[in-house]
UniProtKB/TrEMBL annotation:
One of its GO terms (molecular function) is nucleoside transmembrane transporter activity. One of its GO terms (cellular component) is plasma membrane. Pfam families: Nucleoside_tran. Coiled coil: none annotated. It comes from the Eukaryota. It is a multi-pass membrane protein. InterPro entries: Eqnu_transpt. This is Equilibrative nucleotide transporter 1. Belongs to the SLC29A/ENT transporter (TC 2.A.57) family. Its main location: membrane. Keywords: Membrane, Transmembrane, Transmembrane helix, Transport.
Amino acid sequence: MGITSADGDSESASLLVPHPPPKIPRDSFHLAYAIYFTLGAGYLLPWNAFITAVDYFDYLYPDASVDRVFAIVYMLVGLTSLLIIVAFAHKWNSVVRINLGYALFLVALLAVPLIDAWYVEGRVGVYGGYYGTVLMVGLCGLADGLVQGSVVGKAGELPERYMQAVVAGTAASGVLVSVLRVLTKALYSQDASGLRRSANLYFMVSITVMLLNIIFYNLAGRLPIIKYFNDLKSQAVNEEKEQEGDLTGKAWRSTLWDVMRTVKWYGCGIMIIYVVTLSIFPGSITEDVHSSVLKDWYPIVLITGYNMFDLVGKFLTALYLMENAKMAVWASFGRLLFLPLFYFCLHGPDLFRIEVPVTVLTCLLGLTNGYFTCVLMILAPKTVLLQHSETAGIVIVLYLVTGLAIGSVVSWLWVL
């Protein structure tokens, strides 16, 4: 497939720079790692808040397929914003993109509870509120494109453990919201008032994390290890300018095309991972499976199981990183087997439709999603020169969001 794998397992790993200085500053107290972990959790938390509050939105808007509509709007808007970022990444500073993205997240997350409090007021069928909420989902998709592409791109310029931190953080956000959902379901009544209080809690937690992420991100640039790699990139960029001139117009398009060709198989692997995952989760998990024992706890148990094992998979790369990229890509395509397996669980013999096989499959879906996503996202930016690592990271996120968008559309086939 023309894949080039990279070696190295430390902070002095093989970043492709012209003249790497001999000594890398320590990440004291693992502060930079913790910040990038939190940044990864932050940009996915708004999406998790929307999809976890689906019980309340289903109550308010019973004639709408809320979770599927949310998924399509979020992913398609995010994909569009990423295309724009890829085209103009060389002209638009990542600091501006990330801060603007978090500001948009805050606007959307604040607007949804306010729409409910001042306009919907807990009444069923006020579809003006539904359209306003969908608009805020789209705004979060735009913010996600700005933040996710840029954070992953910046992590691509750093040693491998920081990309692992970002990707693990995305899984941690799912676990956090799942834990909140379990607690709210156990503590709050499952009537309109209880569902409303639960949804408001998800949004308030997300707003708090967004504010913290703005602070953390702007502090990260002052850490010695981050400044070190920023200086390395500046050195590499300046040397490239001296040799080839500014990357504008045709020169930028040529460089972008070279980066895309270099990482294309990594991107295809990530894309197919999320086509498979989003075609099944959360749509079929929340709407199409039923348990006479667990009743309305069943979707919550499945979503929590998926998120927990997704986190486990992303942390496993810190213990063992599959450096054979070709094998990782083939394993990603092998996840297509989940589609017929889940079809059997939905429409096959009763033996396959009980809780145990569905739960095991859901946990395996999360585990493989987490591990192979993390592997490919770690390896891909290390196949290009340091000054192009951010671009490679953004391109990989473009593949990821394309997979999310396709998977969201495919998920509708389960209801046909």
